[in-house]
Amino acid sequence: MMAAKISAISTTASLRDQSLAVGFDPQSSTRSSTTTLSFSSKLNTNLSIRSLETRRRNKSSTICSAIIVENNSEQMELDTSLSPRVNSVKPSKTVAITDQATALVEAGVPVIRLAAGEPDFDTPAVIAEAGINAIREGYTRYTPNAGTLELRTAICKKLKEENHISYTPDQIVVSNGAKQSIVQAVLAVCSPGDEVKSYFKFLYLMLIAHCGLAISHHSLAGRVIIPAPFWVSYPEMARLADATPVILPASISENFLLDPKLLESKLTEKSRLLILCSPSNPTGSVYPRKLLEEIARVVAKHPRLLVLSDEIYEHIIYSPAVHTSFASLPGMWERTLTVNGFSKAFAMTGWRLGYIAGPKHFVTACGKIQSQTTSGASSIAQKAAVAALGMGYAGGEAVSHMVKAFRERRDFLVTAFGELDGVKISEPQGAFYLFLDFSYYYGSEVDGFGLIKDSESLCRYLLEKGQVALVPGDAFGDDTCIRISYAASLNTLQAAAERIKKAILCLKPGVSV
Ligand SMILES: Cc1ncc(COP(=O)(O)O)c(C=O)c1O
């Protein structure tokens, strides 16, 4: 195999913005220049030439992307390729837009930020005090990997009394946020390469090893069924687990709720995990018990299919809507992994605490992953969480006060945007998001801006012209909509609604896309 053909491009000891990517050509067994990558950060180039040269001799046949660095006047190649697993994952758009809006605010632009999924309330005092006391009392050491027995016992009590599901503490794993609980569950139950014949699997692994290709292998793995609109991380977590996300669209006319018939028609023996989120991010929809029962009847026909029920917004719900835990439905306990956390209802996003509850076999597997990655969650946050669960049914007075405020804000926004021509709304029954269909305005051409053709360009327009940061619906699997987070004061929302409406009124409705 010939050595990599690399052009010299750097003349200083620091890494330049230019770089060279080298692709593997299986026909000729040579490498040829393909793409240019760009790097803005500088790397420490104080490298040992000998070790790098050795590595190059050993590894040059597997380098798919490289840059040229110079050290002590010698040029050398540095492998910059990333794992195919990382290459297959999209970065979070909600995080990107929040960062962009923050940068604008720091530059003095008065942007109203309604992109982040974070309550604007402070953590209730009783919870904060418990955390402070934990530090004062020296409760600052590692806890058991699965979480303290005190917290897991309190979680079991909560799940029994509020959700009518019985668990023992060894069926609970506490993690650094519900996000970690979900990714561990996906990694624990989805098998890469399910149903792959060993010969093809060997060829495929060779291809990955040589070229870092990320694409084809996903079609070979188990499937994760995700109703859309979905929380941005679900499909990416499935990809991280080498599983295939299968997206099942749910329309605004159905209040964004999954149709059991559609589910039934899409399930195969490869389907491994169905992810449900109620109340939903981004739509605020709440699954009524009757619909969940219909879904459960479909699920029950598939012996391989598990359900991950993300119930993190459970307490942020507007009556008469009622939350139902999927695991409480007849026959569903054995196959359901219930995820919940403290970030949303208890305004504890920065404390990083969530948990999973389910049959011991699965939950222990999640704990195993955690034991080799992060270990147990913060001891201080766990003490605070015990206090949170002690605040009363569904979080007691402090949480119902926040829910009342969210409800007022929802009512205000639904009325405000209901006045706009062509905007479609499904009134949220929970969470703190409004997912509005603005596709009526796609196709509009704006002087000095250009064409608004999709949710991304509409959000860019609203950020530039209206100075309001929102998240495009395509990040959630529905390009007709944009998401407004109403975790902000009523005054802020009034100002934002005015700006958005003013910017929208400048648009001439075009053809729908
Ligand atoms: C639907 C949903 N699930 C899980 C999470 C993760 O929450 P955390 O990791 O803060 O507990 C979020 C956060 O935005 C969410 O919206």
From TrEMBL:
Pathway: Amino-acid biosynthesis; L-phenylalanine biosynthesis; L-arogenate from prephenate (L-Asp route): step 1/1; Amino-acid biosynthesis; L-phenylalanine biosynthesis; L-arogenate from prephenate (L-Glu route): step 1/1
Protein keywords: Aminotransferase, Pyridoxal phosphate, Transferase
Claim: Ion transport is one of the keywords in the record: no
Gene Ontology MF terms in the entry: aspartate-prephenate aminotransferase activity; glutamate-prephenate aminotransferase activity; L-aspartate:2-oxoglutarate aminotransferase activity; pyridoxal phosphate binding
GO BP, sorted A to Z: aromatic amino acid family biosynthetic process, prephenate pathway
CDD domains in alphabetical order: AAT_like (cd00609)
First and last residue of the signal peptide: none
Cofactor(s) this protein cannot do without: pyridoxal 5'-phosphate
Coiled-coil features, chain-numbered ranges: none
Listed InterPro entries: Aminotransferase_I/II_large (IPR004839), AspAT/PAT-like (IPR050596), NHTrfase_class1_PyrdxlP-BS (IPR004838), PyrdxlP-dep_Trfase (IPR015424), PyrdxlP-dep_Trfase_major (IPR015421), PyrdxlP-dep_Trfase_small (IPR015422)
Pfam families assigned: Aminotran_1_2 (PF00155)
Keyword Nucleotide-binding belongs to the record: no
Sequence ranges assigned to domain Aminotransferase class I/classII large in this UniProt record: 110-196, 223-500
PANTHER family assigned: ASPARTATE AMINOTRANSFERASE
Family assignment from sequence similarity: Belongs to the class-I pyridoxal-phosphate-dependent aminotransferase family.
Designated name of the protein: Bifunctional aspartate aminotransferase and glutamate/aspartate-prephenate aminotransferase
Organism of derivation: Centaurea solstitialis
Upper classification of the organism: Eukaryota, Viridiplantae, Streptophyta, Embryophyta, Tracheophyta
